[in-house]
Design goal:
CATH architecture of the largest domain: Alpha-Beta Barrel
Structural class: alpha/beta
Number of strands: 22
Helix content: 40-55%
CATH topology of the largest domain: TIM Barrel
Largest sheet: 8 strands, mixed, barrel
Number of helices: 22
CATH superfamily of the largest domain: EAL domain
Length: 556
């Protein structure tokens, strides 16, 4: 009857010699029971003498109380659960193979602590490991060694990838980013995924300098183009760093500080790095307060456009202006885009902003037309998501008609980076705008991907030379070479060129010598309110070389 048991059944006498084994025990131990009967268990299995089984069997024999133990037995590559029952003649042992249950439990434990998509540690296990690292960290006041550094990474432009290519490509991107982060894993560093496109790296026993070096290396690795699902995708990463500045700090506090620093990095223009300090916390509070004020900004007409003139390089005649967003906040005064634009673009108000900017630009153009003020063209800036949002061409046509403005007086400015999210969709939208009469300018040319492929494919009318090249004139010899090549390329493709950030007469002359068509910058004028801009246009302009230079350089 004992041979029918599904558990292994064996008995040993008080001398620890086998007296009985059933068929199941024979199968589980992979030994013929006739080879074991009458022999000592510790002679047949000497490796058990250092195991928990040895301890539990002896404790049961000494106490007269049953005992149990589960352990991995390496020679048979099996997890055994054993229960020992002492009696007058010795011990009876029931045992069974629990390998499958143990592996299932281990799998559940792994899944509970790891992200299913990337395989990285998840937030729960990350916090446990961070808490342990905080406890073990050796804090040395007055030294560069912080004991612990937390890097909070958020992918730049990931939402654009998801919106343009779908979640299948987005998931593949996240897996590839995770694989790249694993390359930074060392005995003192681990990584985790803690949100949709948010990752953590924890550096033990590191200095602030070491944390920044690691962050820069991570940014460079993430920025390398990714090949996923037959598509080339380029991303960036904003990283915030929190350092353990005093003993007793919690993992939760460090993570919150790194998160705050990351938001500061993102607000600074993305692909940035920031180290946490207390002032950043106030900046985050300000950002949240601005988010709460957004509804009032639209409802109370607190948003306005300022206009920066664009003039011909040769004679200073007006060729257009760039519309630049401002927020006249009732408490904080006039805010430039750097203070609030990210807040709007990361909110549900992004779509409303698109229509507001187009409506405001066309309203001003309509007023100036009625007053006989000759403004050739106004350029409005659109983000990647704004460009490919449904119905943009229809909105432009509807609004220009409502104000009686020829669509040819409107220009759409886009950046190189915005094109990379979905070139096909961008091309379709720009074609529709072109058919309606709206022109397109490519902003910050040379500072991003500068792919010749999309220059050929897309209906771009003007290349705007990035101000970094203009400011480098006279200092970096190669800057002029880049500008000259850009102008030559534009001319060969039938495009005009406009240089941004022109602040000196020497820069204007250098650009004119290369054949640049137009300029924009403080040599001509700072951004002007609509009334001041109208007065600027109405006055007969002096040649550019005699225009006053505005000091100092300010944010757009």
């Amino acid at each position: 009857m004992l041979d029918s048991l599904t558990d292994g059944f064996m008995s040993v006498n008080q001398s620890w010699r086998f007296t009985y084994l059933n068929q199941t025990a024979e199968r589980l131990l992979r030994r013929d029971r006739n080879d074991l009967l009458g022999r000592g268990i510790w002679d047949c299995y000497p490796d058990l003498m250092e195991s928990g089984y040895y301890r539990v069997y002896h404790e049961a024999a000494a106490s007269g109380q049953p005992g149990s133990h589960t352990e991995y037995y390496a020679p048979l590559a099996t997890w055994f659960e054993a229960r020992a029952f002492p009696h007058d003649e010795g011990i009876t042992i029931l045992f069974r193979d629990v390998t499958r249950e143990h592996e299932h439990a281990a799998q559940l434990e792994y899944q509970a602590g790891h992200d299913h998509l990337t395989g990285l540690i998840n937030r729960r296990l990350c916090m446990e490991m961070m808490s342990g690292a905080v406890t073990e960290a050796v804090f040395r006041p007055g030294t560069d060694d912080t004991g612990l550094a937390v890097l909070f990474l958020d992918l730049d432009r990931f939402k654009e990838v998801n919106d343009a290519f779908g979640h299948t490509v987005g998931d593949a991107v996240l897996r590839e980013v995770a694989a790249r982060l694993r390359r930074f894993t060392t005995p003192s560093t681990f990584s985790a995924r803690v949100g949709g496109d948010e990752f953590i790296l924890v550096l033990r026993d590191g200095s602030e300098g070491a944390a920044e070096v690691l962050a820069r290396a991570v940014q460079a690795e993430v920025a390398r183009p990714l090949q996923v699902c037959g598509r080339c995708v380029s991303l960036g990463a904003s990283i915030g760093i929190a350092l353990m500045t005093e003993a007793g700090e919690s993992a939760e506090a460090l993570l919150a500080q790194a998160d705050t620093a990351m938001y500061a990095a993102k607000s600074a223009g993305r692909f940035q790095l920031r180290v946490y300090h207390r002032e950043l916390q106030q900046g985050l509070r300000d950002r949240l307060a601005l988010r709460g004020d957004l509804h009032s900004a639209f409802a109370s007409n607190q948003l306005e456009l300022h206009f920066q003139p664009q003039v011909a390089t040769a004679d200073g005649s007006l060729v257009g202006a760039e519309a630049l967003l401002r927020w006249r906040h009732p408490v904080r005064g006039l805010l430039a885009p750097a203070a609030f634009l990210d807040v709007i673009l990361d909110s549900p108000m992004e779509g409303a902003l698109t229509e507001w900017v187009i409506d405001a630009a066309c309203r001003h153009l309509g007023e100036w037309l009625a007053q006989g003020i000759p403004v050739p063209r106004i350029s409005v800036n659109l983000s990647a998501r704004q460009l490919v949002a449904p119905g943009l061409p229809d909105t432009v046509v509807r609004v220009t008609r409502a104000y009686g403005v020829p669509p040819t007086m409107l220009d759409v400015e886009i950046t190189e980076n915005s094109l990379m999210s979905d070139v096909e969709k961008a091309s379709s939208v720009l074609d529709a705008l072109k058919q309606a009469g709206v022109s397109t300018s490519l902003d910050d040319f040379g500072s991003g991907y500068s792919s010749l492929a999309y220059l050929v494919r897309l209906p771009i009318d003007t290349l705007k030379i990035d101000k970094s090249f203009v400011w480098a004139l006279g200092e970096a010899p190669r800057a002029m070479a880049v500008i000259s090549a850009t102008i030559g390329l534009a001319r060969s493709l039938g495009m005009s060129t406009l240089a941004e950030g022109v602040e000196t007469e020497a820069q204007r002359q250098a650009l004119a010598a290369q054949g640049c068509d137009a300029i924009q910058g403080y040599l001509v004028s700072r951004p002007l309110s609509s009334d001041v801009f109208a007065a600027f246009v109405s006055a007969r302009p002096l040649p550019v070389c005699n225009q006053p230079r505005f000091m100092p350089h300010l944010e757009d």
